[in-house]
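BUG: 3D viewer hangs when loading the predicted structure for this chain

Environment: internal workstation, default settings.
Expected: structure renders.
Actual: progress bar stalls at 90%.

Input used:
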Amino acid sequence: TRPTLGPGVRERMAQAARIDAGALSKARAHRADIVARLDNLIGEDDVVVLPTTPRPAPPLPAPRVPTVLSG
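Structure tokens produced before the viewer hung:
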């Protein structure tokens, strides 16, 4: 059985299926170049901080949202 995909997922999967081996190889080489450049920029004791969500944080003061913590 095939899972039901959310909005836009089916289209992205179909687009990814059309990527040929040459384009994939080129993308992997480009990625390797980026990784090497970042390795040269980032030291052993550096920390890279990236956002964890695809959108900006809500403005302050944000309403409190009840949470349940289990321990």
